[in-house]
Amino acid sequence: MNGLPPQSDRTLADFAALEYILLGDLRDLLEEEPGEQTSRWLLAVLDALLEALPQELAIKSQDGFLEDVLSTHPHWEPQVERLRSEYVRLCVWLEELRDRLVSRSPFEEIASRLRYDLREWMTALHAYHRHETRLLQTSINLEVGGED
């Protein structure tokens, strides 16, 4: 057991914790010597991320993606939609990287480029989270500031 509740009972906090752990594992694996064992572990981490990220988006979208922001600032809908689309794009991009790992062997031959691309993906995911947090914080600050 991995310490997390069953998938159906997981919260956004559970997925955030899982993502944090998996990204740490991914960073560590990208520092390892390329080889069959590294490739297997890398594939397992990518599979876990590809399972978790869409589920996280589903939870975020249950009542409408960033509905709290849109209920207060409906004119921000284009920004929210771009953010949601970026999340989907990140999932597709990770799936492409995973497929590249599976379809091209041996790992040693593609390791350098795949490492670079996975680091680039992690940077993009971090930027996504920063943007989402900034949008939420701005919404809250404007809401609180507007009540004076």
Descriptive account of the structure:
The protein has 148 residues and is an all-alpha fold. Helix content is 80%, strand content 0%. It has helices at residues 12-31, 36-61, 67-72, 77-103, 107-145. The protein is elongated and about 55 Å long. It contains five helices and no strands.
Describe the secondary structure blueprint for this structure.
Elements: H1 12-31, H2 36-61, H3 67-72, H4 77-103, H5 107-145
Helix pairs in contact: 1-2, 2-4, 4-5
Summarize the structure.
The protein has five helices and no strands.
Note the beta-strand portion: under 5%
What would the average pLDDT be, to the nearest integer?
A: 89
How many extended strands?
0
Structural class: mainly alpha
Principal-axis shape equals elongated
N- to C-terminal distance: 50 Å
Quaternary organization: single chain
The total of helices stands at: 5
- Percent helix: over 70%
Low-confidence stretches: none
Query: What value does the Rg take, in angstroms?
Result: 18 Å
Spell the H/E element sequence: HHHHH
Give a short account of the largest sheet: none
Please name the defining characteristics of this protein:
80% helix, mainly alpha, 5 helices, 148 residues
